[in-house]
Amino acid sequence: MERTLILLKPDAVQRRLIGSITSRFERKGLKVLAMKMMQISPELAAQHYDAHHGKPFYDGLVQFMTSGPVVALALEGNKAISVCRKLMGATFGCDAEAGTIRGDFGISDGFNLVHGSDSAETASRELELFFSPEEMIDYSLIDDSFNAAE
Ligand code: DAT
Ligand code: MG
Questions:
Q1: DSSP 3-state assignment of 72?
Q2: How many whole angstroms from 115 Cα to the centroid of ligand 2?
Q3: Which residues of 77-86 are buried (b: 16+ CB within 10 A; e: fewer)?
Q4: Cα–ligand 1 centroid distance for 52 (angstroms)
Q5: Mean per-residue pLDDT for 40-45?
Q6: Domain boundaries, the chain
């Protein structure tokens, strides 16, 4: 089982898409271990997007991510990291396939609704940035056996 960090970005919150986007992950079979609405500080945004420091879009990205509240989710599931990236679709809605979150809910090539960790290393680093270990609750769901890795 893998764990991944998902962020519903300020545009998702502003557009009242918290429920619609969260339901995409739930109906796929991912388990919500933690969920909180929060205002990201410039310092946290800088840590989270450290890999993009110095790129032309970096300042705008930090500005956007701190422009309003986000919802952070810790999700668990079989191959959760790649599964969530597939559900999200390509980086921008104008390129993302229909049927994906970004493909269905957005058309912008700047605002893209959702973040998902892109590897096991970034997932553990990002989960640590956003959640304390106590905030991630380990519990059973009645359909766990149907969603488990074989
Ligand atoms: P992803 O969010 O699909 O993992 P990424 O890690 O390459 O994409 O980039 C992180 C975020 O930075 C992305 O969600 C939106 C922004 N971004 C990336 N490339 C950009 C670009 N060329 N212009 C503007 N914003 C960009
Ligand atoms: Mg990325």
A1: strand
A2: 7
A3: beebbebbbe
A4: 8
A5: 98
A6: 2-148
Top mutation candidate among 47, 52, 88, 91 for ligand 1, by most atoms within 8 Å of CB: 91
What pLDDT digit, counting tens, does each position of 127-140 carry? Answer: 999 999 999 999 99
Sheet arrangement for strand 31-38: 31-38, 70-77, 2-8, 114-116
pLDDT at residue 150, as a whole number: 73
Q: Name the active-site residue from 48, 52, 53, 115.
A: 115
CA–CA separation, 10 vs 29, rounded Å?
25
pTM, two decimals, is 0.97
Assigned fold of 2-148: Alpha-Beta Plaits (3.30.70)
